[in-house]
Amino acid sequence: MKPEFWHERWTKGQIGFHQHDFNNHMQAFINRLGVQTGELILVPLCGKSLDMLWLLEQGFQVTGIEISQLAVEDFFAENDLPYQVTDHDDTRLYSSNNLNIYCGDFFTVELTSTPHIDAVYDRASLIALPQKMRAAYVDRLSRLIPGGTRSLLVTLDYPQKEMSGPPFSVTPDEVEYLYEPLYSIEHLPSEDCLMNEPHFRDKGLTRLDDD
Fold it and tell me: In terms of pTM, does the model score above 0.70?
């Protein structure tokens, strides 16, 4: 899956993955990360997620990484946030109060203006990638954050044969395979969210677990 795929999705407005409200799992379990007011949460492959606003409202600093310039600029425009832009080689940094978004390729970006990451919130990163890219994603993430950094990972689990991704199905077993060498994993309660996701039902899904 090349960067052009995502640029095309954003240009055509094919962004069904974008949620128009705050994520329930984030609100319920963000305290499990043990982060304090003023500490920094990394949001990889952030798009224009409203979850970043919620995290800012709780008093956290937020750093996002997003490949689409359109997504980043939409986020600031739609939420009426002023920002400054700084260019670093192949990356453009958008900065606002307690918020930095690096516009660049997650697999090569250097977080030059982010001295320390205290936690990671991943709602739509791992599930955005096909299976062959997920190990590289986890490896790259581990290189961006200090050892022992806590992460809140939200995935979707559904019969993959019923729908082509993204978002892709990522099972609890695969999460363990990918993360267990680096993390101590705690599985949080999952939710059957198919009834609240009519566009997924329309695609023919018979089960959709938000893990």
Answer: yes
Same structural domain, 61 and 138: yes
Instruction: Characterize the bridge pairing of strands 91-96 and 99-103.
Output: antiparallel
* Alpha helices (H) along the chain: 3-11, 24-29, 51-57, 69-78, 131-144, 172-179, 198-202
The string of pLDDT tens digits covering residues 135-161 is 999 999 999 999 889 999 999 999 999
Domain identity same for 161 and 142: no
Which domain covers residue 166, as residue numbers? Answer: 155-211
Query: 3-class DSSP state for residue 95?
Result: strand
Residues 128 and 167 in one domain: no
Residues 68 and 129 in one domain: yes
Over residues 75-124, the pLDDT tens digits come to 999 999 999 999 988 899 999 999 999 999 999 999 988 879 999 999 98
Contact between 11 and 4 (Cβ < 8 Å): no
Query: Are 65 and 29 in contact, with CB atoms under 8 Å apart?
Result: no
φ, ψ dihedrals at 96, nearest 5°: -140, -175
CATH code of 127's domain: 3.40.50.150
1 and 78 both lie in a single domain: yes
Helix (H, G, I), strand (E, B) or coil at 111: coil
Looking only at the bridges linking them, the beta strands covering 91-96 and 84-88 are antiparallel
- CB of 104 closer than 8 Å to CB of 65: yes
Is the residue at 140 inside a domain? yes
